[in-house]
Amino acid sequence: MDSRAPKGDSDAIHTRLRSIGWSAWFEERFAEHGRGGSEPGRVIADHGSAYLVQLEAAAVQAVVAGRLRHAASTRASLPTVGDWVALQRLGHGDQGSIVAVLERRSALSRKEADASTVEQVMAANVDRVFVVAALSEEVNLRRLERYLTIAWNSGASPVIVLTKADLAADPAQALAGVEPIALGAPVLLASGATGVGLDRLRAELGAGLTGVLVGPSGVGKSTLINRLMGDALLKTQAVRRDGKGRHTTTHRQLTILHHGGMLIDTPGLRELQLWGDGSALEQAFEDVARLATGCRFRDCRHQGEPSCAVRRAVEQGELQADRLASYRKLERELHALAVRSSVRLQQEERRKWRLIQKSARDRTRPG
Fold first, then answer.
1. Would you call 144 helix, strand, or coil by DSSP?
2. Domains of the chain: which residue ranges?
3. Who's near 28: CB < 8 A, 6+ residues apart?
4. Which of 17, 42, 104, 335 could make a disulfide contact with 22, Cβ separation 3.0–4.6 Å?
5. How far is CA 209 from the centre of its chain?
């Protein structure tokens, strides 16, 4: 018996797919591929050379079709967990070939951790980005700001999750320390050991919505998913004596929770380089952006220019100097990324330095 869904009304065909995020928006983008005999499916696991794709009737192992691999302009164009794809069955139908990746509604991306300027998509079509930090140690606010910038750039809504609340001396104080940098992102206390905060997590991730957990190794991401599932679905390891967790996730996968939401677990990130533009930075640092509107100069760098409202706020204690330094660091990083990515900007950068060098030569030339 052919396990593929029958032809007919799309609402009847895609009942299973709608439960994992399928919508009219994806239906419209799939139409041309459906006429070619492909089936829609969602990538639920990435094992490197092969993927697990959930179709309407079953989950099948799949590889990327040669023509798609050759046509992909960048590695970011290839499938990742959360993607909706067009798939053609192979052999007896228990394997498939991914022939197209449908347009993404959102994408959590970072720059690959090397000298190249290459985008790495960590998760696609997500509605919530859960930025996870553990209270078993002091929360690194500067790291959280970096993660929040990446989250805002994805097109999804960020949520900060402070895990291992049971190991914190004063969870309420830790929460109060993080809230000033959240700026519109909810901040939740949670514990995989006691179950604290799980109801609020479920509330952020309603039926049909997809979330992704991001954070360093050992902060308790897999443990949270296991508690939300009610069983040990994902492999975890015990906390070390110093209170730090041990990294267990080795690949990305999407887990369907009992209440209907979905979570993507990601391997712990040793390095998180930014990808995107300045608009995400303005969202993550809305307080700095708002203060900057009071500066005398529109292109104020907040480094000593006259009538700088941002520096004045630091001097008056309204803005932490460390937060401004973090903003400027991330701003420089995004600018450097843009320069490397754009020939035009590279030319402008070279032209600017030529003018600076010429001016310096003119000043030192004997009169």
1. helix
2. 10-101, 107-265, 285-364
3. none
4. 17
5. 15
Round to whole Å and give the CA distance between 228 and 221: 11
pLDDT, residue 348, reads 65
In the structure, what pLDDT confidence band is assigned to residue 13 with cuts at 50, 70 and 90? Answer: low
Examine the pLDDT at 2 and tell me if it is beyond 60: no
- Judged by DSSP in three states, 119 sits in strand
Mean per-residue pLDDT, 310-317: 95
- Name the nearest CA neighbour of 247 among 79, 132, 142, 138: 132
Which range of 5-9, 153-157, 301-305 scores highest in mean pLDDT? It is 153-157
Phi, psi of 142, rounded to the nearest 5 degrees? -65, -35
Asked if residue 111 lies in contact with residue 119, where contact means CB atoms within 8 angstroms, the answer is yes
Among candidates 325, 324, 332, 366, which has minimal Cα distance to 349? 332
Q: Hey, is 74 helix, strand or coil?
A: coil
What's the pTM value of the predicted model, to 2 decimals? Answer: 0.82
Residue 24 host element (H or E): helix 24-34
pLDDT at 126 over 50: yes
Distance CA 115, CA 101 (A): 27
CA angle 324, 212, 105 (to 5 degrees): 90
Q: Which CATH architecture is the domain 107-265 placed in?
A: 3-Layer(aba) Sandwich (3.40)
Task: Write down the CATH superfamily of domain 10-101.
Answer: Nucleic acid-binding proteins (2.40.50.140)
Higher-confidence residue: 232 or 1?
232
| Bridge partners for 108 per DSSP | 123
Task: Decide if pLDDT at 221 tops 80.
Answer: yes
Give me the helices (H) in 162-210, please: 171-182, 198-204
Question: How many residues appear in the chain?
Answer: 367
In 3-state terms, the chain is what percent helix, strand and coil (to 5)?
35, 20, 45
Q: Is the dihedral of CA 243, 249, 250, 252 positive or negative?
A: negative
- The pLDDT of residue 252: 80
Residue 243 or 42, more confident:
42
Q: Which of 196, 198, 186, 247 is nearest to 222 (CA)?
A: 247
pLDDT at residue 354 in the model: 76
